[in-house]
Amino acid sequence: MKKIILLLVLLVTVVTVNAQTSTDESLTDGNFNKWSIELAGGFNKPQNPMKYYTSPISPFVVDLGVRYMLNNKFGLKADFGYNSFQEEKNSTPFDTKYYRFDIQGVANLGRIMNFETWTKTIGLLGHTGFGAAYFEDKNSSLNDKMINFVIGVTGQVKLSDRLALTADFSTIMNALQSHTYDAAALNPEKGFNGALFNGTIGLTVYLGKNQKHADWVTIINNDMLVQRERIDALEKMLIDSDKDGVADYLDLEPNTIAGLMVDSKGRAVDLNNNGIPDELESYLTKTYPKNSNGDEAISDKESITKLVNGGYVAAYFDFNKSTPTDSSTDGINFVLNYLRNNPSATVEVTGYADEIGNTSYNEKLANERANNVKNILTKAKISSERVTVTSGGIDASVDKDSALARKLARRVTFKIKN
Q1: Which of 15, 152, 321, 332 could join 170 in a cystine, given CB atoms 3.0 to 4.6 angstroms apart?
Q2: CA dist 6 to 9, 129, 149, 173, Å?
Q3: Phi, psi (5° rounding) for residue 273?
Q4: What's the confidence (pLDDT) of residue 213?
Q5: In what order do the strands lie in the sheet with 411-417?
Q6: For residues 80 and 229, is the Cβ–Cβ distance under 8 A?
Q7: Whether the Cβ atoms of residue 98 and residue 133 lie closer than 8 Å to each other
Q8: What is the DSSP string of 127-144?
Q9: Residue 417: CB partners within 8 Å, gap ≥ 6?
Q10: What mean pLDDT is predicted for residues 20-48?
Q11: How many whole angstroms separate alpha carbon 193 and alpha carbon 134?
């Protein structure tokens, strides 16, 4: 028993000293409370030395402590304890008192064993230390002055940021104890042979201006935090929102329709630069062949509306120009033919500009582009009441330092309403 106690003392001493001198861990946020007050009460059982017998559970114990945490794993506490011992029913009557004061090292086993990975409200403290004790018998005026060693564990249940419920079990060993706990005989041994068990339930009140106490905070190593941030950044970079095989940070067209072939920049392949992705154009040509008038015989309104409104049919513009490029006429003609074949349909035309240049000028340019596309449609005998114009202003969703990306921003899109 003595070897085990000495081993535990050595262990707590080493880790406590290490906690004060180690520089391996740095606080990412040192704003937590370190002081607390502990009040508990319960029962005790003196084991040795005894001549008679105490009750199986002898009332009572009171314990008051003040604790200071050096960090979230290790700390120190000073505590005062009071025990009262009484006889068992068939034993000679006695009424003795025991007082002690101890300085103890505290290990927050909950943080050391990473309880936070599975609970935010249950904790565990280990504590051990030495102190002075005083023992007296009121009937005989007998008293003893002793030194003691205490070791125990404290379970915690967090009730709030300021309060925790505790349950503690401690073993106390006295040295230089001259009398038995029942004051009925002398104790011939002077070593650590006075054994006393305490069981208490109490409350811990956390002090300080910060929200949380060291008992419940996690301290992250700075190097680990940097690595975690790097991993998070890499994970975000690898997100592929449109599932086209190109990560978002490289994707110049982050909303490509599922299944379309894309280039290395995530753009739907459009080899003839007519504003309609090649695979989509091929599908439309096969599905909706031209009728006798040369117009597209479009019948699947829902599918076509989704494609057009999704931005896959558009007109593009050269830098600082308000007239569509020659290759964009196919996209405008596609919308035109749809409107001809669906007389009740209307279209909203929205113009955009890239980020280069003055903001107010670019917003005006975006509006001019939309109006010019409307004019093309109305000149083709589409009623102006069926075409509305809006300005999308500046498109800041692409990399403004990339000339290729800016080409995608200078556009007019369509929104069909049936």
Answers
A1: 152
A2: 5, 11, 10, 12
A3: 50, 40
A4: 95
A5: 314-316, 411-417, 346-353, 387-394
A6: no
A7: yes
A8: EEEEEEEEEEETTTTEEE
A9: 345, 346, 347, 348
A10: 73
A11: 15
Q: Which residue has the tokens 């504003």?
A: 275
Rounded Cα–Cα distance for residues 148 and 128 (Å): 11
Q: How far apart are CA 130 and CA 132, in angstroms?
A: 7
DSSP 8-state assignment for residue 381: T
User: Which DSSP state fits 87?
Assistant: B
Task: Give residue 314's identity as a one-letter amino acid code.
Answer: A
Q: How far is CA 191 from CA 127, 129, 151, 152, 328, in A?
A: 22, 17, 17, 20, 99
Task: Please tell me the predicted confidence (pLDDT) of residue 304.
Answer: 78
Going along the chain from its start, the domains and CATH numbers come out as 2-225 (2.40.160.20), 270-417 (3.30.1330.60)
pTM above 0.85, yes or no: no
Q: What is the separation of C-alpha 73 from the centre of its chain, rounded to a whole number of angstroms?
A: 21
Let me know: does 9 contact 28? Beta carbons within 8 Å.
no
